[in-house]
Amino acid sequence: MRAERSRSGIRVVLDTNVWISAALSSGGAPASAVRFVLAQHRVVLSTAIFAELESRLWRAKFDRYLSIETRRQLLHDIAAVADWIEIPENLAQTGWSRDADDDHFIRAALASGAQLLITGDADLLEVPEIPGLVITDPARSLQLLRSPD
């Protein structure tokens, strides 16, 4: 991926499944991708993405893996480091994915000028090419972000 990088890196949208996978396991590709993006680039959030992350993290199935305090801190930290964006009307109803619930990730990427959307979601990974945006999984994102070109 050839990316125009400023001193603070490129803008990147992270799917909620990547954030949660990274929180649950520090050793996998999602955690490595999150760490790399946070260290070198700029994370983009919209209210829809944050609301989804918050609702997913509070699911009872995560109680045994992440304490309430850990989840609160995670949400706080993500909110604090992100570039918050608003979705303009012209993108608000546009759809790309087979699963319309996933389109808010693409909307955030396009509204912010993000060049990369990192996801583990098959519906997003199969979206037809969108000019200026690469949609990829965590492992491939690391290869793309680390490449000199």
Give a structural overview.
The protein is an alpha/beta fold. The chain has a single domain (11-146), classed as Rossmann fold, CATH 3.40.50.1010. It has 8 helices and 5 strands. The protein is globular, with a radius of gyration of 15 Å. Residues 1-7 have low confidence and may be disordered.
**Gross CATH architecture:** 3-Layer(aba) Sandwich
> Hey, roughly how much beta strand do the residues contain?
5-15%
Low-confidence runs (pLDDT<50, min 5 residues)? 1-7
Major sheet summary line? 5 strands, parallel
CATH class: Alpha Beta
Strand elements, count: 5
Give the overall shape. globular
What's the helical proportion of residues? 40-55%
End-to-end gap: 6 Å
Q: Strands of the biggest beta sheet: in what spatial order?
A: 3-2-1-4-5
Radius of gyration: 15 Å
Number of domains: 1
State the CATH topology.
Answer: Rossmann fold
Give the CATH superfamily. Answer: 5'-nuclease
Order of helices and strands: EHHEHHEHHEHEH
Q: Mean pLDDT score, rounded?
A: 88
Question: Helices, strands, pairings?
Answer:
Layout: E1 11-14, H1 16-24, H2 29-40, E2 42-45, H3 47-57, H4 68-81, E3 83-84, H5 89-92, H6 103-112, E4 116-118, H7 122-125, E5 134-136, H8 138-146
Parallel strand pairs: 1-2, 1-4, 2-3, 4-5
